[in-house]
Amino acid sequence: MLDLAKSVPGPPALPLVGNALLFMVNPKEQLKIVNQLLNKYGDYVKFWLGPDLNICVKNPADIRFLLTSNKVTQKGPVYEFFKSFVGHGILSGGKHWKAHRKIVMPSYNKKAVNLFSTVFNKEAEDLAKVLSQKDPHQTFNVYFDVVHCTTQSVCQTLMGLTKEESLNVARLREVMLETHNMYQLIHLKMTRWWLHIPIIYYLSGRKRIENKYIKMTEDLSSDILQKRKNALKHEVTDENSMNAVDRLILEGLDEKEIKLEVFTLFTTSQEASAKIVAGVLLFLAHLPEWQEKVYDEILATVGFTAEVTDEHLKNLHYLDMVYKEVLRYLAIGAMIQRSVEKEITINNGKITLPVKTSLVIPIHELHRDSRYWDEPNKVKPERFMPENVKKRDPNAFVPFSLGPMDCLGRVYATKLIKTIVVQVIRQLKLEADGTLEELELDIAISVKFAKGYNIRAKKRNNDATSA
User: Fold this and answer.
1) Domains of the chain and CATH, by start
2) What is the DSSP string of 278-344?
3) What is the tens place of the pLDDT at every residue in 46-58?
4) 37 vs 31, 53, 226, 251, CA distance in Å?
5) Would the pLDDT of 94 be above 90?
6) Which of 64, 180, 233, 259 is the most buried (most CB within 10 A)?
7) What is the DSSP string of 223-235?
8) Are 58 and 38 in contact (CB under 8 A)?
9) Any known ligand binding at 407?
């Protein structure tokens, strides 16, 4: 490992601690450190965190090659910090991730997601009604209304609950409000080495908070699981329309494993989707000319009252551009990490990654690399116009990762998010103060706006709606 590591540039490392002292900064600053290293050493940088060798790769072609390789099919060691909440499964990796992913995958494919269209539209309509009742002069954080919508959508589709059941899931509201804080706790423990020492973690009071969150998530998962077990006693299951929870139950998995995967599927679907929806609405509020383009396109393609279908979404090109710019600007995974299981060569044969190396892919930095993105720190949906996309390396945009461990819910999330935006924009005109670039970012596991997604909403005068 030491011999092979010599071929990769990086900062000088100290005995025992390596480069760990370099990263002993506020979690928000750690991505800046990675960016500085990449700027100094190039697209391939090594750094040691104690005895662990990390190699950061920002070359787009090698990113695709590595993420799609069968030599790099395990999550990296940072995902250990998720395991208290989600176990060794789909999100965190481990020996069961591939088998569990295969079980639930049919509930995320295009055929299954098409069956969710009615639920998506109904919940999106309800969200538009809630937003239409807001004071048009009052600014509010739209995320909290959106997350209720995405949560209800997930409960009634992937979780297989009825509307009544989904409104009465144990500790549901608490989970919706506390999920962000839970992820913040995970990231804090992940990035501050002294919290890795159990006694310090315990004495800091954070172990007690972690236990509170674990109990909260377990109560929610247990309730969903019990509801579906009861339903399966008298329901006839259909393979094509079966929800993800039923697939796990009928596969005969251990109940504890099922609960952990239920929460994994729940939180990665409703929380991440809510952030992206809120991001799209905020972008449109700040970009009135793009909001009108999207609005006019919606009326021409979908109309004032029709249910949003897949065919409609395929033809909403302006919406797709704004959606992709949100994914670029607000990466759902700021950095991802994989473990190298077999030696693999990159950089045209100049670098060989040793076994047990931690591979780091800096998605946030890749999505802001000026070699591929004109004025990368500005919000410009037009960068996704076809003529601009053709000029850019296609591997410079990887919002859902790549390969066998890519985002399981990308098809599901895309349809849910776009359906919600269509239902909201055709009923409401959104406004916001200042510019998007002035808004402070909070970068932890994902990238989001530090002070929320603050907009105003007022009803549009749609004569055809009332006619």
Assistant:
1) 1-459 (1.10.630.10)
2) HHHHHHHHH-HHHHHHHHHHHHHHT-SSPPP-HHHHHT-HHHHHHHHHHHHHS-SSS-EEEE--S-E
3) 999 888 999 999 9
4) 10, 15, 49, 46
5) no
6) 259
7) HHHHHHHHHHTTP
8) yes
9) yes
